[in-house]
Amino acid sequence: MSTSNPTTKSISLKEYGIKSENVHYQLSPLELHDVTLKKGMGREADSGALAVNTGEFTGRSPKDRFIVKDEITEDKVWWGDINIPFSTEKFDALYDKVVQYLDEKELFVRDCIACADDDYRLDIRVINEYPWSNLFAYNMFLRPSDEQLKNFDPEWTVINAPGFKADAEIDGTRQHNFAILNFTRKIALIGGTGYTGEIKKGIFSALNFILPVYKNTLPMHCSANVGEEGDTAIFFGLSGTGKTTLSTDPTRRLIGDDEHGWTEDNRVFNFEGGCYAKVINLSEESEPEIYGAIKKGAILENVIMDDDGKVDFSDISITQNTRVSYPLYHIDNIMEPSIGDNVKNIFF
């Protein structure tokens, strides 16, 4: 995947009902880094990485995650406390309010891809209120080449408005923040939270439905790597249990650290183009590959830094869920493309 900058720098969002003409399209990581600093929305660490504070929410909010219950999802989703139904009418009304809010904003738009295997490729457009959120999308999704962008036709759209707060009584949400999937309109609508993980999890939650229902492919919350003999290993575990650490092995090529698909012909492919690693108590000695990936282009979230930009990874005064996102190419030993065959070892 190319990391170069397309020449197009603006794009119309009228097809989404967004009237703003102050729109930046496909900015480079360095441009987004600099814009964030100029707006006073982040600081630069001594490693060169951008450090931001995500605000009220420093993690995902599962009770505020909804799926529109419609003809596509009604009989195929296991509804309950995890998959909470949301009405089509409430979604449409809330969407219109978010769009109206974004009309007056400077926006940052990125076209990107999920799924490293072209047979399962999902083209995405991400519309962000904040520049650093758009940098996160650059890091975490696959980056299309300039040639791919010429005829890019996004199938799904992520609309991310952290500054918009819902009115729960009117809008049908639980509180002011929300992340809602609409499979008919193919939209992930996110508001009221600056936590960037909601952006990637929106699309990957959609894939958790799309892949098994339509593609006969198993979506997995796991990391994966490949040995010298082409043997693929996958590592399952809850968040924070070591998937990223175990898969980032200098003797094996990294496929990915979080979200993968396992096809019926025994291939494993990464959904992502980057890593989103916890950095609590991180040190160069214990995890040199991850530590080395924290450089210009990476985003540190909710860490504590001194006046010289030195990060104290042991300081959890904001949250224990301190994070870094970085593109896969910040790691030296990676699979390109991020696909493995011959699954030999599975770790739980």
Provide a descriptive summary of the structure in words.
Helix 1 (29-38) packs antiparallel against helix 3. The protein is an alpha/beta fold and 348 residues long. Helix content is 21%, strand content 28%. The strands form 4 sheets. It has an 8-stranded mixed sheet with strand order 1-6-7-8-10-9-4-5, sandwiched between helices. The chain has 2 domains: 14-41 and 59-214, Phosphoenolpyruvate Carboxykinase, domain 1, CATH 3.40.449; 218-347, Phosphoenolpyruvate Carboxykinase, domain 2.
Whole-number tally of structural domains: 2
Major sheet: arrangement of strands: 1-6-7-8-10-9-4-5
The rounded Rg comes to 19 Å
Q: What proportion of the residues is helical, as a percent range?
A: 10-25%
Q: What is the overall pLDDT average? A: 95
Choose one word for the global shape.
globular
Q: CATH superfamily membership of the largest domain, which one?
A: Phosphoenolpyruvate Carboxykinase, domain 1
> From the coordinates shown, what is the CATH architecture of the largest domain?
3-Layer(aba) Sandwich
**How many strands, what sense, and barrel or not for the largest sheet?**
8 strands, mixed
Q: What top-tier CATH class of the largest domain fits best?
A: Alpha Beta
Poorly predicted runs of 5 or more residues: 1-8
CATH topology of the largest domain: Phosphoenolpyruvate Carboxykinase, domain 1
